[in-house]
Specification:
CATH superfamily of the largest domain: Histidine kinase-like ATPase, C-terminal domain
Largest sheet: 5 strands, mixed
Number of domains: 2
Bound molecules: adenosine-5'-triphosphate, magnesium ion
Number of strands: 5
CATH topology of the largest domain: Heat Shock Protein 90
Mean pLDDT: 85
CATH class of the largest domain: Alpha Beta
CATH architecture of the largest domain: 2-Layer Sandwich
Strand content: 15-25%
Order of helices and strands: HHHEHEEHHEE
Helix content: 55-70%
Low-confidence stretches: none
Structural class: alpha+beta
Number of helices: 6
Radius of gyration: 23 Å
Shape: elongated
Strand order of the largest sheet: 1-2-3-5-4
Length: 217
């Protein structure tokens, strides 16, 4: 597409900050007009009917707008899919940091729900930011495994790793938001996240999200 991701985000933000507020204001104005004319309603039933309709239209408009904003901000995944978005992510990361990056895909090729894709993309981005800041790594591998019932993401680097003790402290720290934020997002799609020293060294973030029986959160 010719519209860049940045532009999409800007448009989505604009719609959210301004147009959504306008719909809200229209609904509010119509409701208050309806209330202030309550006494005269018997002589102006059609006006009352029109105002009720304006209120309903404003609600419907706001709803349609929210759908549009959602679609717009997920267009990245809808258009090219999660895999393409991850490729783009690691390419940009490699160019900026010089750290070797790779994406390893296993399992089946099947459509991934937009909300799951969004979470996996966010975890990948945040994990790479951590690799850049903390790991002193020379390489990082993103592994994406699509199973029949679960989708799994692993981010493994070959850096200094982090000690379990330190990570336990971090779990209670009010200063670190990265891992905690990731865990929250993952749990909203009924998934789990584990982070810590990798089995063969380095640092590893592991996410597992069920593909079926997800309740909307
Ligand atoms: N790839 C990694 N290699 C080594 N240590 C890591 C790695 N990723 C995370 N850590 C350790 O885990 C800690 C917690 O990470 P987290 O992302 O939650 O916080 P942060 O990066 O320090 O701060 P921020 O809130 O800005 O993300 C880090 O401070 C770091 O010590
Ligand atoms: Mg971080």
């Amino acid at each position: 597409s010719s519209v860049s991701e940045d532009e999409r985000r800007r448009i989505a933000r604009e719609l959210h900050d301004h147009v959504e507020q306008t719909f809200f204001a229209i609904g509010l104005t119509a409701t208050s007009a309806l209330q202030s004319t309550e006494d005269e309603l018997e002589i102006a039933p059609r006006l009352a009917q029109a105002l009720t309709q304006v209120t309903q239209l404003a609600t419907a408009g706001a709803e349609q707008l929210r759908t549009a904003i959602f679609t717009l901000s997920h267009a990245e995944f809808a258009e090219a899919g999660l895999v393409a978005a991850l490729r783009q992510l690691i390419m940009t990361f490699h160019t900026r940091t010089g750290i070797e990056t790779d994406l390893v895909l296993t399992g089946h090729e099947r459509p991934i729900p937009a909300d799951v894709a969004e979470v996996l993309h966010a975890v990948s981005r945040e994990s790479l930011a951590n690799v850049e800041r903390h790991a002193h790594a020379g390489a990082v591998v993103l592994g994406l495994h699509t199973g029949a019932r679960f989708i799994k993401l692993t981010v493994q680097d070959d850096g200094t790793g982090g000690s379990r003790l330190m990570l336990e402290h971090i779990a209670h720290s009010s200063m670190r938001f990265g891992l905690r934020g990731m865990r929250d997002r993952v749990s909203r799609v009924r998934g789990t996240l584990v982070a810590g020293p990798g089995p063969d060294g380095g640092f590893q973030v592991r996410v597992r999200i069920p593909l079926h029986a997800r309740a909307a959160a």
